[in-house]
Structures are given as structure tokens and as C-alpha cells.
Design brief:
The chain is an all-alpha fold. It has five helices and no strands. 66% of the residues lie in helices and 0% in strands.
Length: 115
């Protein structure tokens, strides 16, 4: 009987984590070929894995405190301003900040000079 309970418990925990991760990533697209192309134009040598990591860090660090914004909510300059403010508040190091920004600035559909 204990074996059956452990299986049910594991299933429930897994379903709960899946549900939570789905909620946290709503509106946060994975890095498409278009997003990768924008990243490579700005940062030659950027890989799909770099952007996947940046997206994961964005979800991990930012969803811990608030709802996530769609990348196109802000221009690249807007994301830089937000990250400069949030970096200290969320205890994000420079490398992590740069990885998050690379994802967000590549994923935004707003022009680089838009506010």
C-alpha cells in the first residue's frame, strides 16, 4: 500500500510542478529562428542554447516575484533600464543579467530605438 501511495504522491507533485511551470512561462516564447537571427546580427556567435538559457534564467529569476512580461512589452533600451533596476533587487549577477538581456532584446519585436 505504501508503494501505491508514493506513486500517487510522485504523480501529484509532478503534475503540480508542470502546472506551475506552465503558468510561469505563459507569453514567453522559446527562441525561434527569427529570434536567433536577431541575436546573431547583434551578437555574432550567439547560439540557440544561449537564448534557451537566457529565457530559462528570465523565467527562473523574474517569475519568482512577479508575472512575466512579454518580451515585446519593451524595446531593447527599455529592457536595459528595467534590468539595471531589477538586477540589485533580485540579486542577479552581471553574467546572468547579460544572458537574460540577450534573450529579451532578441525576442522583442519593438525597434531598438522605440521606447
Amino acid at each position: 500500500m505504501a508503494k501505491g501511495f508514493k506513486g500517487i504522491l510522485a504523480l501529484a507533485v509532478g503534475a503540480g510542478l508542470l502546472w506551475l511551470s506552465g503558468c510561469a512561462t505563459t507569453g514567453v516564447p522559446g527562441p525561434s529562428a527569427e529570434i536567433l537571427s536577431r541575436a546573431q546580427a547583434r551578437w555574432p556567435g550567439t547560439t540557440q542554447a544561449d537564448l534557451v538559457e537566457g529565457r530559462g534564467l528570465y523565467v527562473e529569476h523574474c517569475a519568482a516575484c512577479h508575472d512575466l512580461h512579454d518580451a515585446s512589452d519593451l524595446s531593447p533600451a527599455g529592457w536595459e533600464r528595467i534590468m539595471a533596476r531589477m538586477q540589485k533587487k533580485a540579486h542577479i549577477d552581471d553574467v546572468t543579467k547579460d544572458r537574460i538581456l540577450k534573450y529579451l532584446e532578441s525576442a522583442t519585436e519593438r525597434a531598438a530605438d522605440a521606447q
